[in-house]
Amino acid sequence: MRRHASLVGLVLLVLFEGAAVWFIMPLPGSxxxxxxxxxxxxxxxxxxxxxxGLVLMxxxxxxxxxxxxxxxxxxxxxxxxxxxxxxxxxxxxxxxVLFRQPDHVEMVAPSEAGVAPDRLVVGLVxxxxxxxxxxxxxxxxxxxxxxxxxxxxLVTYCTVCxxxxxxxxxxxxxxxxxxxxxxxQFNAMLEDRSTGSWWRQANGEALVGPxxxxxxxxxxxxxVTLRQWMALHPATRxxxxxPRFAAEYDADYAxxxxxxRSRLTGTDRRSWQEKSWVVGVRVGDAARAYDWNALLTTGAxxxxxxxxxxxxxxxxxxxxxxxxxxxxxxxxxxxxADSLRAGPAAYGLDGRxxxxxxxxxxxxxxxxxxxxxxxPGTTRFPAAADPPAP
Length: 390
Fold this sequence. Notes:
Layout: H1 2-22, H2 36-44, H3 46-61, H4 69-91, H5 95-98, E1 106-108, E2 120-126, E3 129-134, H6 135-141, E4 143-148, E5 151-158, E6 163-168, E7 170-171, E8 174-175, E9 178-184, E10 187-192, E11 198-200, E12 206-208, E13 217-219, E14 222-225, H7 226-232, E15 237-240, H8 254-257, E16 277-283, E17 286-291, H9 292-298, E18 300-305, E19 308-314, E20 321-325, E21 334-336, E22 339-342, E23 345-348, E24 352-353, E25 356-357, E26 359-360, E27 363-367, H10 368-374, E28 379-381
Parallel strand pairs: 3-15, 17-28
Antiparallel strand pairs: 1-15, 2-3, 2-14, 4-5, 5-6, 6-13, 7-8, 9-10, 10-11, 11-12, 16-17, 16-27, 18-19, 19-20, 20-26, 21-22, 22-23, 24-25
């Protein structure tokens, strides 16, 4: 058995490192199953398993004398294979290596950011201070940390789900540090540095680890074009991309405009397909998805969810959207250019009107597969038969 131990150790290392990457990255078949528990178990066991593999290899090779050329080649080959697999799994393929973080987040005036006005941003306002984070930057990084009005924020975006979320990163009274670890069910996962727990980007929930079940506090954010955001918030600051990642930032608008045909991030222009766009709204325990094509056709959708009358409106640019609670079910809104109208009364896209300001409702544009997966039991507007399985 000893003479085969080196081969057993090598196979163990190759299979383990391959499985550790497969379960946590968007590789064929890996994201169609609930794999986060397995991925986390492999992550926790990584050093003991690696040590066992190396011990087996060393034990099997120890009787060999290094005198012969063939034996030296055997030892060198096995060592290179083990080292190559381990290096690739830990220094080439990890998510935080493929998608690196900027040294710091620099917020500047819109004219200094180098961002085209029709590019999409995740907008945030805290205590009157407005910030815009362009998708072309945070889509690559997956998350950035910043401080707005003296408060720490965690700005996240997953291009495979098309989900933009902003969270309060404070846990147990301290600002947590994060790293990108991979994906589960096509959604980005972050790891907190303090406990090593893994968190889902779509809802800020810790899935595995010591903090399992904890949910980050989400902060209200808006997805609009930079031009629209500047019109609503003229004094806004805009994130400027880190010049070190100029080549990594998406140079064209295919993803944002929905013209990409990538397997993971491409858009299906039909309704209710895996990669169709929806606007998701959650009120209490009730969740509903609104077909983006229907919203583009009507300009505004009036509905009632969990007893709360609401309206979702897409701006004239066919890219920016907002959602508000209607004052009464009898009041119905329509879109007129870049304003909302309820009879003769006009409201801006900031919700301000003659009768005061409309109350904003959190709404997110994402792929249908994402909203459906992370909001089980969601209803749809307009209702339609389920499309055939892909």
